[in-house]
Amino acid sequence: MAALEFVGAPTWAALSGKPVSAQVWDDVHAVPHVKIGQEADLVVVAPATADLMAKAAHGQADDLLTNTLLTARCPVIFAPAMHTEMWEHPATVANVALLRARGVHVMEPGVGRLTGADTGAGRLREPEEVHARALALLERPQEAADRRTQDLAGRRVVVSSGGTREMLDPVRFLGNASSGRQGVELALAAHQRGAHVSLVAAHVEVDLPQVRGIEVVRVSSTAELDDAVRLAATGADAVVMAAAVADFRPADLAQTKIKKSDDGGAPVVSLEPTTDVLAGLVAARAAGELAASTLLVGFAAETGDEHGTVLQHGRAKLTRKGADAIVVNEVGRGRGFGDVPSTATLVERGPDGALSEGTVVGPGPKSAVAHAVWDLVVSRWSPGTT
């Protein structure tokens, strides 16, 4: 009923083309408080308030929605929306854990602007993200069921995110267009599935998670990211390198701002390679500095050229670096970077070194790509369980 304070029943009916039920006592002859749940293929509660989740966790049924939740035997999605303090309150944390243990799919809320001037964790996820999660539950019920069992519980994972910057002088830098959204989605998805997450974040355009279970480490340069990832990877079960790492840096850092010359000429900047973070992790694992069981997943943001397609370049990168898998996506104008639908191809390395043909994910929200990556990771731990 509270939702009708924001949007009235006639508006819901007109937009959906369906009747709107709001009271247990509406159309009593049809027994809606039982029938709706019994006949549903999927129940989506968006927004799901702290009060609603508390009632659902403890089996209360004092309105039509909570009655429906008790009778539903189909997948159920909650998309939480509340202030950060409410989301992080021990009572809400316990209620969410209880719901997930019973098989309810509770999405991690977004991080951003809330009611009034507040910002933080608790923002309702975008409609496209809720829609993608709903489709995943309907189209891949077994995979969805695996997620609801907290398949990353007890695992420690590391995710890198954002674009590194290499300083040219005290003012200017070499960088890239990465927004950091994919890395943040990977961290949120892993946390949702029960993992303890270390998120190493370079420069991002999105709010970083502020939730228990996600440790955020801020870095700037590739060298700083390499140090932070190496440290976090010690004892980790998986490392997913979603950061857009600068491949080159100025060979010499100017100590003062470079000025324009009087004749209008431009300075010549010599570049040198930066540290190859992913290849370094592979070498560290081979040397016993990381556990042999640590899974290493890279990202390849590519553009096709005369030397090969996007996928060919991505597969070559996986072969060159020696990781266990790579996520290949095309980038460029209107593609890949930022808040745009993503299409990615997940390529794995087999025990014999052979590469898989690749699994295409999308187009869809970056949250869908994130879950697909963790599905791949889980399948490597337990072959045949995806």
What would you note in describing this structure?
The chain is an alpha/beta fold. 34% of the residues lie in helices and 21% in strands. The chain contains 13 helices and 17 strands. The protein has an 8-stranded mixed β-sheet with strand order 10-9-6-11-14-15-16-17, with helices on both faces. A 3-stranded parallel β-sheet has the order 1-2-3, with helices on both faces. Helix 3 (50-57) crosses helix 6 (90-101). The longest helix is centred in the last third of the chain and has 16 residues, at 366-381.
Short summary of the structure?
The protein contains 13 helices and 17 strands. The chain has helices at 9-16, 32-39, 50-57, 64-71, 84-88, 90-101, 127-139, 141-148, 181-192, 222-233, 277-286, 310-321, 366-381; strands spanning 43-48, 76-80, 105-106, 110-113, 119-123, 156-161, 166-167, 173-174, 196-201, 214-218, 238-241, 248-250, 271-273, 295-302, 325-330, 342-348, 359-364.
Which features does this protein show?
386 residues; alpha/beta; 8-stranded mixed beta sheet; 3-stranded parallel beta sheet; 13 helices; globular
The poorly predicted ranges are: 141-148
Shape: globular
Number of DSSP strand runs? 17
Main sheet makeup: 8 strands, mixed
Distance between the terminal alpha carbons, to the nearest Å?
Answer: 39 Å
Number of helices: 13
Question: H/E element string?
Answer: HHEHHEHHEEEHHEEEHEEHEEEHEHEEEH
Q: β content, as a range?
A: 15-25%
Q: Please state the CA-atom Rg, rounded to the nearest Å.
A: 24 Å
The helix content is 25-40%
Query: How is the largest sheet built, in terms of strand order?
Result: 10-9-6-11-14-15-16-17
pLDDT averaged over residues: 84
Structural class: alpha/beta
